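Now read the record:
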Amino acid sequence: MCGITGICNLEESSGISLDILKKMIGYMHHRGPDETGIYIDDHVGLGSARLSIIDLIGGTQPIHNENEDLWIVFNGEIYNFPELRTDLISKGHRFYTNTDTEVIIHLYEEKGTSCLNDLNGNFAFAIWNSRTHELFLARDRVGIRPLHYTVSKSKLYFASEIKSIFVSNSIRREIDPIAMDQIFTFWTTLPGRTVFKEIYEVPPGHYLKTVGGKITVTKYWEFPHYDKHEILDWNTDRICQNVSDIICDAVRIRLRADVPVATYLSGGLDSSGVTALMSRNFKHDVQSFGIRFEEKAFDESALQKQVAEHLNIKHEEITVSNKQIREYFPEVIWHCEKPILRTAPVPLFLLSSLVRKNNIKVVLTGEGADEVFGGYNIFREDKVRRFWARQQNSRFRFLLITKLYPYIFNNQKTGNLLKQFFGHGLSDTDNPLYSHLIRWNNTGRIKQFFSDDLKASIDSYNCFEEIRRILPGSFYTWDGLSKAQYLETILFMSNYLLSSQGDRVSMAHSVEIRLPYLDHRLIEFMAKVPAKHKIKGLNEKYILKKIFNGVLPENIVNRPKHPFRAPIDKSLLANTSDNTIPDIMIQNEELFNVKKIKNLLEKLQKNSDSSEVENMLLAGILSTNLVYNQFISGFP
């Protein structure tokens, strides 16, 4: 794992500033505290801040091929590198390190851009060809590792984190109004865009090449969908056996490291399953880490303890207070580099700090299982609403919604309000965004707090029209669950979950996360499994539950899905003398309507019960203003 960065001349050679390159690397020291390295010539400069995990002594980057005409800086891990290395040696390639990094460069020699199809891992890397003066940037299939770029004065700048790019004074720092519209609808930007104007992200499953001064961005992998004749007509036992084999192997190869590997344990099915496979099949001295909350409504420590005792593993927890969430929120935004509508990244940031204090660099986590296996309530909700839409006047069909959210359908008044909420657009089942529209429209209510200037800048732009344009051509023919899984995956998972609650908060403390459920072999296999096996009736993640039945305690396997959350209003609006949050909330008239925000704050300080939208407002407005303060007005 590392932070990578670089500068490439797109036109005639004008030299590369070594000082700027060093500063770019310096801003990512947290990603790679073990060592730094630079390659520089008249056309390009490559930089690396290394977190050493494979070949601790000999893996210094940048790494080159035999002729020293190809150079690579790499962030990530290639889990199948031993097998690839053996094959490459048989074809005559000579290695001078034992790293997975060197495997990539020889595979690129052998296959060009097609090498990406052979890589099983999470990665963002840059390869420079000093003979042809071509730069090749690539990002893993689902976007576990970040990679940003921009062009200024005929130079391409790239880096794992945007703050490194902002080191150059030639690059302007400005909030993108279109990105704001997307974030306050989808929780994130659409693939390729960031919150900053003209700062882009190589989308997941894409690569970028510079040839003759021209930049091209190409898709090499898409979240798979198969035609009806390709769907597996197997019984569930056979499906479960195949899935179990893939998951087990995904865990096995993610334990490849020259340093200890631990796990995150939340007490839910996904992380418990990974921990069980790890402890029972590969590693008997497993160390797991979990989070406790001061707010009991968010605390799942009893379940973590139960799983740890069941598996007989060592488990350590960190207790997160509301005060800590408030205090560390600005630092988390510095690492996330984007507005967020939740406080959940803060506890994960603190958890990675605990892991690092225990001298652990690598942890396995359970992210991705909900997207792959059909675990979120929004998937079951889509299924119920489509069923309800066939007989809209049926009160019995609507009652299925109450089974999904029994904790909020607790009286007649809320029941009627929620019936209206879930019934909005009920009959519009042909809409490709059907599964997510009511949620996105709900989040979009926050945009009422945008300033008049920001609204004017957004003008007639319609984010729903744009997302329709990027959908696969066959999308309209897919079944409802496949559509919902695709939307959830390319937006919430890839652009938010794997970033703000994944790489950014773990690498803030030099901790690498590895995600077995996002092994591309598992994603591709599960795409062939019929929807009826993923959600059986209203029983979500049916396949995964069946696999871990008997391996984990019954209450862990069958407990309803509990999304990971953290307190928002009780953390951010605590009545303390040192709380400057209200001041930060109302300081930016360029982006928000300050009068409306003041009214909101007065209301919330009088009334302890805030709504879902009001919580999103608090986190979203505060985090946006922090982004502005840290990267626009106050960047060093």
User: Anything to note?
Assistant: The longest helix spans residues 480-507. The mean pLDDT is 94. The first strand starts at residue 2 and ends at 9.
